[in-house]
Design brief:
three-stranded antiparallel beta sheet; mainly alpha; single chain
């Protein structure tokens, strides 16, 4: 573990990370990881992975009740995803603890992940056709049929269908990748639910937030069971920053230009990703 850290710097960076998590700008766990590696100078790859995921979970403490009040959660989809996700999280954590403990190996792989997330954020900001938001109306999305091979959800006068088995397999694969790299996996959950399962974005964001809570918990517990050291003093400073930033994001997002925000985030992530790859 690190001999010390700047508490004010850690708190301030986590306010920014929590703000971006709640804004939906993309890659919240990646932003937290950048802070741990380049701002705080942590050198224990496994400790970074655990800290990233603890902060991702903390942000969800704020965002899940918000999405629930906005009637933007599909519990049957989150449950299906969560069936496979914890298994993938445990497997990913074991794989990472066994094969990605060396910081010299983890750092360039993390840089590649940063660059990929930057590309997705840039695509969403400039090239993805805008979707007209759907208004949920007076009721939550309602699951009218749920079986292993088919589920049907009624929402806003429309009927949505998905394969629960396919959602569980997606949960396994996404959670394996996210846990192995020590990030939440939201950068993969959103395109999976929107582009593969064809759910509207207004439901995807909230459902994805809930769906990742189980694998985040399973991954952190697995790392701890594998005796990964964690600086809980640092976590105690960072979590309040994440919560503050996560509360700030929803209050300010209506006043900010989404395209400009995502372009700025993507540009910073590209620069950092290249630095990690070649540095």
């Amino acid at each position: 573990m690190e001999p010390g850290f700047n508490a004010f710097l850690a708190f301030g960076w986590c306010v920014l990370a929590g703000f971006l998590m709640s804004m939906g700008a993309g890659g919240g766990g990646v932003v937290a990881g950048i802070g741990h590696i380049s701002i705080l100078g942590m050198t224990d790859a496994n400790a970074i992975k655990v800290a990233n995921q603890v902060l991702e979970f903390a942000s969800r403490i704020v965002s899940v009740p918000l999405y629930h009040r906005q009637k933007r959660l599909v519990w049957s989809l989150a449950l299906s995803f969560g069936t496979g996700a914890p298994v993938g999280a445990v497997a990913g954590s074991w794989f990472s603890r066994t094969y990605l403990s060396d910081m010299d190996l983890y750092r360039p792989l993390f840089g590649l992940l940063v660059a990929l997330v930057a590309g997705r954020v840039l695509y969403e900001g400039w090239f993805k056709p805008p979707r007209r938001p759907r208004v949920p109306g007076a009721s939550h999305p309602r699951t009218v049929e749920f079986g292993w091979r088919r589920a049907r959800v009624r929402f806003g006068g429309e009927e949505l269908q998905f394969d629960p088995g396919g959602a569980a397999l997606g949960g396994f694969a996404i959670s394996f990748a996210g846990s192995a790299m020590g990030v939440g996996g939201g950068f993969l959950v959103t395109p999976f639910m929107a582009s593969v399962l064809l759910f509207p974005m207004c439901l995807v964001l909230g459902t994805g937030v809930v769906a990742l809570m189980l694998p985040l918990t399973a991954s952190v517990l697995t790392y701890l069971a594998l005796e990964v050291g964690v600086d809980w003093r640092l976590i105690a400073v960072e979590v309040p920053g994440i919560l503050a930033g996560s509360l700030l994001g929803p209050a300010l997002n209506r006043h900010l230009d989404e395209r400009a925000l995502k372009t700025l985030v993507a540009a910073v992530l590209v620069a950092i990703g290249v630095y990690y790859l070649v540095g």
